[in-house]
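Budget justification aside, the reviewers requested a transparent look at the raw inputs and outputs of the sequence design task funded under Objective 1. We therefore reproduce one unedited record. The lines immediately below are the C-alpha cells for a 162-residue chain.
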C-alpha cells in the first residue's frame, strides 16, 4: 500500500462508524423492525417488568420505546457524523455540527421516504422531526461536554475571558 492509499484510508477511516450506522438505520427501516414485529418481543418483556399493566399501557410503552429509538439512533448517528467531519482534528466547530445535523436530517427524510415503500411501515414527518431533534441534541450535548472539559482544563478565566 502506497502513501496515497494510506492518506485515503486516514481520511476515510473516521467516516466508517457513520457509514455502518447508516446501514443499521436502513435495516431498522425494513419490515423486520415494523411495530408488529417489535411488539412480539418488546410487549412480553414489558409484561414481565410490569405484570399489572394493562394492554393499553403496554402498547403505549411500546410506542414510546419506538419513538425513543428514533431519537437515540440519530443522536448516535450525529456523533458519528461529527467524528467523520472532524477527521484527525479535535474539538468542536459550529460548521461541523451544522453539517452533521444537515446530513442526519437529510438521511432521516430519505429513510422515511424509503419506509413509504415498505408495506408494514409508514412514513412520518414526525418521525423525521424526532430524528433531527436527536441529532441536534447530540451536537448541543457534545458542545457542552467539550466546553466544560476545556473550562476545567484551562481554568475558568481562560475560557470565559474573566
Amino acid at each position: 500500500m502506497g502513501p496515497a492509499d494510506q492518506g485515503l484510508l486516514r481520511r476515510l477511516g473516521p467516516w466508517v462508524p457513520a457509514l455502518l450506522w447508516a446501514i443499521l438505520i436502513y435495516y431498522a427501516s425494513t419490515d423486520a423492525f415494523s411495530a408488529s414485529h417489535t411488539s412480539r418481543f418488546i410487549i412480553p418483556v414489558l409484561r414481565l417488568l410490569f405484570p399489572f399493566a394493562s394492554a393499553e399501557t403496554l402498547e403505549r410503552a411500546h410506542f414510546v420505546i419506538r419513538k425513543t429509538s428514533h431519537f437515540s439512533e440519530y443522536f448516535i448517528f450525529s456523533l458519528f457524523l461529527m467524528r467523520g467531519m472532524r477527521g484527525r482534528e479535535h474539538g468542536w466547530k459550529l460548521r461541523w455540527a451544522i453539517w452533521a445535523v444537515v446530513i442526519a436530517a437529510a438521511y432521516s427524510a430519505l429513510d422515511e421516504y424509503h419506509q413509504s415503500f415498505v408495506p408494514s411501515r409508514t412514513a412520518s414527518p414526525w418521525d423525521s422531526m424526532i430524528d433531527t431533534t436527536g441529532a441536534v441534541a447530540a451536537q448541543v450535548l457534545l458542545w457542552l461536554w467539550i466546553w466544560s472539559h476545556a473550562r476545567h482544563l484551562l481554568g475558568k478565566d481562560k475560557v470565559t475571558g474573566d
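The CA atoms of residues 88 and 136 lie 22 Å apart. The radius of gyration is 20 Å. Computational costs for records of this kind are itemized in the attached budget.
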